[in-house]
C-alpha cells in the first residue's frame, strides 16, 4: 500500500496546478438535483463535445421542475415517466434509474429529510435510505455527498484507471477496485493538500486521466 501511495503521489504531482482549481460546487443546497445527478451519472458521459450527455438533461430537468430540485417531497410527486422523459431511460442493475431516484427520495422523505438542511451524509439512516435501494451503491452515494458539498472522492472508471495505470507502471501486481482507489486518493490528498478539498483533487485526476 505504501509503495502504491508513494507512486501515485508522484503521478499526481505532475498534474498542472490549475487543474486542482477547476472543480466548482456541484448542487449544494439542491438535494433533489444532487440525487438525480448521482444516480444518473452511473456509467454515463457527463457531457460531450457535441453538447450532449447528462449535463444538458440535468439542466433541462432543473428548468422544468425547479422545486423538485430542492425539495424531495416535490420530487416524489413526479411520475417515473416524467423523469424518464427528461433524463432518459437509463438502467442500473436491471431497473430504471428513474425508479431508483424515486425510491431513494421516498426513503429519505420517510426519515423527514426534505431538503439539504435535514440531510447528514454521515448519518447511518440517511446512508441506508440510499444504499438499500437496489441498483445504488457506495460509489454513487459518495458522489451524492460530494455534490452536496461533503468532501469525498468518487472512484469511478477514470479514477480507478488512473490508480491502476500507476500500479501497472510500478509492477505492483494489484488489481485496483473502487475501495482501494478511494483510499489512495484520500491519502495522497492528506499528504499533499493539492486542491482545496479531496473533491478538488478527485476532479483534477479525473480531468487528467480522461485527457490521456
Summarize the model shown.
With 212 residues, the chain is an all-alpha fold. It has helices spanning 2-12, 31-40, 54-64, 72-75, 80-87, 97-110, 124-131, 138-147, 157-169, 178-192, 198-210; strands at 91-92, 95-96.
Offer a few descriptive terms.
212 residues, mainly alpha, two-stranded antiparallel sheet, 11 helices, 2 strands, 2% strand
General description of the model:
A two-stranded antiparallel sheet has the order 1-2. The chain contains 11 helices and 2 strands; from the N terminus they run αααααββαααααα. It starts with a helix and ends with a helix. With 212 residues, it is an all-alpha fold. Helix content is 55%, strand content 2%. Helix 2 packs antiparallel against helix 8, helix 5 packs across helix 6 and helix 9 packs across helix 10. The model has no long low-confidence stretch (mean pLDDT 94). Strand 1 and strand 2 form a beta hairpin. It is globular and about 50 Å long.
Would you spell out the secondary-structure blueprint of this structure?
Elements: H1 2-12, H2 31-40, H3 54-64, H4 72-75, H5 80-87, E1 91-92, E2 95-96, H6 97-110, H7 124-131, H8 138-147, H9 157-169, H10 178-192, H11 198-210
Antiparallel strand pairs: 1-2
Amino acid at each position: 500500500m505504501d509503495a502504491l501511495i508513494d507512486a501515485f503521489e508522484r503521478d499526481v504531482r505532475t498534474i498542472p496546478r490549475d487543474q486542482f482549481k477547476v472543480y466548482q460546487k456541484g448542487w449544494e443546497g439542491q438535494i433533489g438535483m444532487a440525487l438525480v445527478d448521482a444516480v444518473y451519472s452511473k456509467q454515463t458521459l457527463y457531457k460531450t463535445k457535441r453538447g450532449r450527455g447528462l449535463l444538458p438533461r440535468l439542466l433541462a430537468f432543473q428548468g422544468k421542475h425547479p422545486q423538485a430540485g430542492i425539495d424531495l417531497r416535490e420530487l416524489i410527486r413526479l411520475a417515473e415517466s416524467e423523469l424518464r422523459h427528461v433524463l432518459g431511460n437509463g438502467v442500473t442493475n436491471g431497473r430504471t434509474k428513474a425508479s431508483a431516484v424515486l425510491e431513494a427520495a421516498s426513503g429519505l422523505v420517510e426519515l423527514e429529510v426534505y431538503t439539504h438542511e435535514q440531510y447528514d451524509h454521515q448519518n447511518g439512516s440517511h446512508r441506508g435510505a440510499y444504499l438499500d435501494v437496489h441498483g445504488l451503491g457506495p460509489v454513487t452515494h459518495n458522489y451524492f455527498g460530494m455534490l452536496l458539498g461533503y468532501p469525498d472522492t468518487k472512484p469511478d472508471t477514470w479514477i480507478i484507471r488512473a490508480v491502476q495505470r500507476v500500479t501497472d507502471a510500478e509492477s505492483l501486481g494489484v488489481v485496483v477496485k473502487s475501495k482501494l482507489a478511494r483510499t489512495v486518493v484520500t491519502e495522497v490528498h492528506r499528504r499533499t493538500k493539492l486542491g482545496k478539498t479531496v473533491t478538488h483533487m478527485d476532479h483534477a485526476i479525473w480531468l487528467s486521466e480522461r485527457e490521456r
